[in-house]
Structure formats: structure tokens, C-alpha cells
Amino acid sequence: MSRTLHPQHTALSLAEAGVPVLPLRRGKVPFGNCPACTDNACGGRPNMKTPGPCSCPGVCHAWAAATTDPAVIVSPPWAAAWRQAVCVGYHPGGAGLTVVDLDNAKAIAWARGCLPVTRTVPTTRGEHWIYRGAMASRNAVHPGVDIKSSMSYARYLGPGTGHLADLPDAVRALAVKKPPTVRPAPPTGAVPSGAASGECPHRSPAYLERGMAMAVQRIADARSAVHATVYRTFLAVLSTHGRCACLTETHVARLFAAAQTKGETLRHCTDAWTNARTTLGL
């Protein structure tokens, strides 16, 4: 498929082939949520891990907005987004695919020595290796290597070359988080009472909910220095709730969604979260 096609035309062709698509704006990031959907107040898209459907016709919720419905792709809300779009994104997991994103020549050399040959697509600095099969997405599985599949999006850069191989165990193994061999001891008195037993030491769930609402609002209110605001907010949440059992993956996803609405990429969110945990010795 030619890269010279208008993004909307490319999206329609991909959707016809069963690949869920979405427009990407400048910076190769999804369009942010509309005011009604900010912070998933609408309940989220049906294919997101949040309760309830979302009837918003706009281009909301990043990867979860990806669709194969041509009527949606050409609808007035989406048509306006396509006019501003710089390229087409797609949800690999929704198409039953996994993209191994190799960011530089060293990463490509590593993949050639460690992973089975499959379809490849050249990128600005490296290559996308595409496999048949979906899995969990994870960034920084190796220097310069990210995995994009379920609950993630990738930029469409053409059909690529080579045979599409089945997703191998070698790629699945990359997403398995390995426990650290040595965990740094927290400073004396830093672990709240009850944290070791997995019990939440806070007075009520409302305490966490207020903190989460304030954190999300702090990110939403950022008008400049968004990177720094996201990091400081993550740091504040982790310093209060990072050592007890009350902070769940749902809360983390809520913070990431707020940051991505402000234009942060999944990689930026993951890096900021990891750096905050490292700073606090978690």
C-alpha cells in the first residue's frame, strides 16, 4: 500500500482487511479525549477494561478508539481528525498481531540473532517486526526494543516485506517481568504500618479516591512542562500509596490515561512511573 495515500484512504483499506485503525496527530500520538470523556468520566470504550459503554462519536480513548467500521472512519467527527492527522495508527492486538519495535541498528542486530525471521517494516530509525498472534504490550524489554500488541497502538508504515510468522515463545518471554535479584531496603520508618501484610493502612477507600482525583486533575491542568508534571504527580502518588496494597493496576491505568490525554506517549508514562519507583526505592 502506498504511503502517499491520504491517511483516511489508508485507514479505510486497513479497516477492510480487519485492522482496527485510528488517526494520529503531530507527534505520532492519538487525539485527546473530548471534554465529556476526560478521565474516562464516560465509562470508557467497550473494549477498554473499564465498566460501561461510551457513546461518544469522537476520536477518544487512544488505542481503544481504533475501529474497522468504515461508517465511523468517514463520520463527521472523525473526518475532522483525519484532516489534522499526520499518519495512521492501528491496534495490533485487535488485529491479532504483535509488533516488535526495534528503535535502532543495535536493536535490529540483536533481533536478527535472537528472534525468528518474520515480516519487517522499515521505520524512521529502525524496523517493526510483525508476528501473527497477540500478547501483552511492554516497553523497554531490551535496549531499544518495545512490544506493541494488546492495549497499545503502532504507526502504520506500509505492508512490509517477508512472510508473517507465528508469534514465538521468544517474544512472549520478553514481556515476562523478572523480579529483581536484590530489592533495596526502604529507609527506616518509610514503610507504613500494615504494608508488609498487604493491608491498606489508610482510613478508608475515599482517601485513595480523593488522592487519585487530585492527581488526575493536576495532570489535566498542566499547561506547560507536562513531562515534569506527570513525573512529579506519579512520584506523589507512589510516595503515599506505593508501599501498600491499595494502589491497583486500575489506578495506574487511570493515571496513564490522564497523561496520554495531555499528549504523553505510553513510553513516556512507563519511563516516568519507573523513574518514580526507583527514586522511592520501590
Task: Give a brief outline of the structure.
35% of the residues lie in helices and 14% in strands. It is of the alpha+beta class and 282 residues long.
**Contiguous helical run count:** 9
Radius of gyration: 20 Å
What pattern of helices and strands is seen along the backbone? HEEHHEEHEEEEEEHHHHH
Structural class determined from secondary elements: alpha+beta
The number of distinct β-strands equals 10
Overall shape: it is globular
- Separation, N- and C-terminal Cα atoms: 46 Å
Q: Which features characterize this protein?
A:
six-stranded mixed beta sheet, four-stranded antiparallel beta sheet
Notes on the protein architecture:
The structure is a single chain. With 282 residues, this protein is of the alpha+beta class. The protein contains nine helices and ten strands. The protein has helices at residues 7-16, 70-73, 76-84, 105-114, 169-174, 205-220, 226-241, 249-261, 266-280; strands at residues 21-25, 29-30, 87-90, 97-102, 119-122, 127-132, 138-142, 145-148, 154-155, 165-166. The strands form two sheets. Strands 4, 5, 6, 7, 8 and 10 form a six-stranded mixed β-sheet that branches. Strand 5 and strand 6 (127-132) form a beta hairpin. Helix 6 (205-220) packs antiparallel against helix 7 and helix 6 runs parallel beside helix 8 (249-261). It is globular and about 55 Å long. Mean pLDDT is 83; it is low at 180-198.
